[in-house]
Specification:
385 residues; alpha+beta; 4-stranded mixed β-sheet; 7 helices; 25% helix; globular
């Protein structure tokens, strides 16, 4: 992207304000807590703890009726602790579901202090508050539960029963309600001990929220960010396939579910990814304009993708194409038997920089998002005539 002198000054001011905001957030996290309370810097590890919580009544809410869907990057929750540099507190990683400015749910791996009831602690990070909103804003994202929401959670035998306080009855619209419910189900089912979720609202069972969103029955992990589905002819079946696109900020990867008429395998996924997102103004293309897909084949666990010559224009992206390559890798390696990706251009191997095509530990890691955003904005700022 090229900038005029005035545009460069505006971006420079914006970048300076961002750096100041990050510094203030870091200072707040270190000094703005009562004595003895540990801070929770993010770390790139996997969710680790049994999320059982014994607090609260036995809420049993109904969520969306059970639907069979492929899990999205579900973590194993094997124990993994890091000694905190300050105070020796143990840390664990957990996956928090935020939303972007367009309502897409975005999973982010965050590092938090080790504690009993980590599932409930994770959900509490998704409630609007000064601290939570500041953390989400650092990532370019927003929280999904309304301010002052209280959460009771009980997990047993694979079922999470959650009771949300009456604040969730005041959501602004059906989209906000749906995002909240879906984010809760996705978050809880990241834990190995949770297969299903039931809801109660303010101690009572309900079938629907005020704007019509279902909370009756039992919810299982479902499709995330489902694109609008066009009506199909009778007898024609469609299948879901998960695609990964860079968000409009260029700092996060957004998973999207697209319904396809062909077998949902790596060939179909890469072809659909090359078509781009349905909402191009909200998500970024992975493949450069005019680029075509020549071939997809899998050999010895490696997905080999061959594109037309326009693929080399990827380096013109503000981040040098790094997020697009990451989205390609995530889209391919979700399929069993695929461990890595190689890119070819007109039949010749593409010389991506070392490590670009390695499988990431997770699609979005909190500290990396902040760092990458600043780096990307800096590159855009100084790329001018």
């Amino acid at each position: 992207m090229k900038f005029s002198g005035n545009q460069r000054r505006v971006y420079l001011l914006a970048l300076a304000l961002l750096v100041i905001a990050v510094a203030l957030a870091s200072t707040w996290s270190l000094w703005g807590k009562p004595a003895g309370e540990s801070t929770a810097p993010e770390a790139a590890t996997t969710p680790t703890q049994d999320p059982q919580s014994t607090q609260g009544s036995e809420p049993s809410q109904g969520v969306q009726p059970e639907a069979s869907a492929q899990p999205l990057d579900r973590q194993t929750n094997a124990e993994s602790t890091d000694a905190a540099q300050a105070g020796g507190a143990s840390k664990t990683s957990t996956i928090v579901y935020y939303q972007d400015n367009y309502g897409y749910l975005v999973p982010v791996m965050c590092s938090v202090p080790m504690e009993d009831g980590i599932a409930k602690a994770t959900l509490n990070m998704m409630v609007q508050s000064v601290g939570n909103d500041m953390q989400a804003a650092r990532l370019g994202l927003r929280t999904v539960l309304p301010e002052n929401t209280k959460i009771d959670l009980d997990i047993s035998h694979g079922l999470a029963r959650i009771d949300l306080s009456k604040e969730v009855l005041d959501m602004p619209d059906a989209a906000a309600e749906s995002n909240m419910v879906n984010a809760i189900v996705q978050t809880l089912t990241e834990f190995d001990s949770v297969e299903k979720v039931e809801f109660m609202i303010d101690g009572q069972k309900r079938e629907k929220l005020p704007h019509g969103t279902s909370v009756g029955g039992t919810f299982t992990r479902g499709d995330i960010n489902l694109e609008s589905v066009e009506p199909t002819m009778a007898g024609v079946t469609v299948e879901p396939v998960t695609l990964y696109f860079p968000g409009d900020s260029g700092a996060v990867i957004v998973p999207v579910t697209r319904m396809v008429h062909s077998k949902p395998d790596v060939n179909t996924a890469v072809l659909e990814l090359a078509k781009g997102p349905n909402n191009a103004e909200m998500l970024e293309n992975v493949v450069p304009a005019g680029c075509g897909l020549i071939d997809v084949k899998v050999e010895n666990g490696i997905a080999k993708l061959d594109f037309t010559s326009e693929f080399v224009n990827l380096v013109q992206n503000s981040d040098g194409g790094r997020m697009a390559l990451k989205a390609l890798v995530l889209t391919c390696t979700q399929f069993d038997g695929i461990d890595s990706v190689e890119i070819y251009v007109d039949g010749k191997k593409y010389d991506a920089s070392a490590g670009e095509l390695g499988v990431p530990s997770f699609m979005n890691i909190a500290d990396s998002i902040v760092y990458d955003y600043i780096q990307t904005q800096s590159a855009m700022l100084f790329d001018f005539d």
